[in-house]
Automatic annotation (TrEMBL):
Protein name (Swiss-Prot/TrEMBL): GDP-L-fucose synthase
EC number: 1.1.1.271
Originating gene: fcl
Protein role: Catalyzes the two-step NADP-dependent conversion of GDP-4-dehydro-6-deoxy-D-mannose to GDP-fucose, involving an epimerase and a reductase reaction.
A biological process from GO: 'de novo' GDP-L-fucose biosynthetic process
Annotated GO MF terms: GDP-L-fucose synthase activity; isomerase activity; NADP+ binding
Length: 324
């Protein structure tokens, strides 16, 4: 019997590599990957030819251009264009070539800036987005609607999962273009090495964020992909097909920094530059749906940061790149 051929788009990034690890641990499938030099996902012709040639059965669409507040504010055109092109090309080519199952990886920035907390799936498109990453969020919302539209028109089973803020091995630790957790890890680690007596952090430290280790996210993604269609549909609708993935627990940026300093062993001061933007005041996902479906996160924040720091210590070379 032939194994299921599973294409993981974005397998070199933090999310995609975690999904590859999760799939390898469960077995029973043949994993197909291509790096950017082999397949440019923003090129429609290349993507269509890839699907025509490879006879793919399932797709995990984890490829994306990602970054923190600075990167989103500096490169808004790149963020909206690249992400729209990746989503459109992969989802369209998958459907054209009779791929019935696809899982699209989202971002919680798609929810309104001032959405009621915790944010459940019905918050989508009910208010204004956070201005600092609106182009990225618009692109990711379009990805959800692409999946829903191909389901409605072509009878596909394309699902979307909405992870909260992710961190873990293979994250982007660029000093300017990374998200808050890896940026803090690098900054505090370097301060410890150089003997600096303080670390300056953007914002006030008061915004609240939820953090999910990427291995938990990958486990949840495989869980959702493998759910029976009737069970998945019982917890979604044709016009609201996405599922939140998170811990259901948040903390302030100050608390994150304090936990990070404890894990790293840094004893200096944490100083907040209040002239820099905070972003959304609070981002906590309502994870009641996925918990009712039978999945819960298993890695707490301190444990996850310790795992990530151990990985970081062994992989510091080449960490100044922006990842795709």
């Amino acid at each position: 019997m032939n194994k299921t051929r599973v294409y993981v788009a974005g397998h070199t990034g933090m999310v995609g590599s975690a999904i590859v690890r999760a799939l390898k641990s469960t077995g029973g499938c043949e994993i197909v990957t291509r790096d950017h030099s082999e397949l440019d996902l923003t090129n429609q012709k290349e993507v269509e030819e890839f699907f025509q040639d490879q006879e793919i059965d399932q797709v995990y669409l984890a490829a994306a251009k990602v970054g923190g507040i600075y990167a989103n504010d500096t490169y808004p055109a790149d963020f909206i264009f690249d992400n729209l092109m990746i989503e459109c090309n992969v989802i369209h080519a998958a459907s054209n070539n009779d791929v019935q199952k696809l899982l699209f990886l989202e971002s919680s920035c798609i929810y309104p800036r001032l959405a009621p907390q915790p944010m459940d799936e019905t918050c989508l498109l009910t208010g204004e987005l956070e201005p600092t990453n609106e182009p990225y969020a618009i692109a990711k919302i379009a990805g959800i609607k692409l999946c829903e539209s191909y389901n409605r028109q072509y009878g596909r089973d394309y699902r979307s999962v909405m992870p909260t803020n992710l961190y873990g091995q293979n994250d982007n630790f660029h000093p300017q273009n990374s998200h808050v957790a890896p940026a803090l890890m690098r900054r505090i680690h370097e301060a410890k090495l150089s003997g600096d007596n303080e670390v300056v952090i953007w914002g006030t430290g008061t915004p609240m964020r939820e953090f999910l280790h990427v291995d938990d996210m990958a486990d949840a993604s495989v869980f959702i992909m493998n759910l029976d269609s009737s069970e998945y549909l019982a917890n979604t609708s044709p016009m609201m097909s996405h599922i939140n993935i998170g811990t259901g627990i948040d903390c302030t940026i100050l608390e994150l920094a304090q936990t990070m300093a404890e894990v790293i062993g840094y004893e200096g001061r944490l100083v907040f530059d209040e002239s820099k933007p905070d972003g959304t005041p609070r981002k906590l996902l309502d994870v009641g749906r996925i918990q009712r479906m039978g999945w819960r996160a298993s890695i707490d924040l301190k444990e996850g940061l310790s795992m990530t720091y151990r990985w970081y210590l062994g992989h510091q070379a080449g960490m100044n790149k922006v990842t795709m």
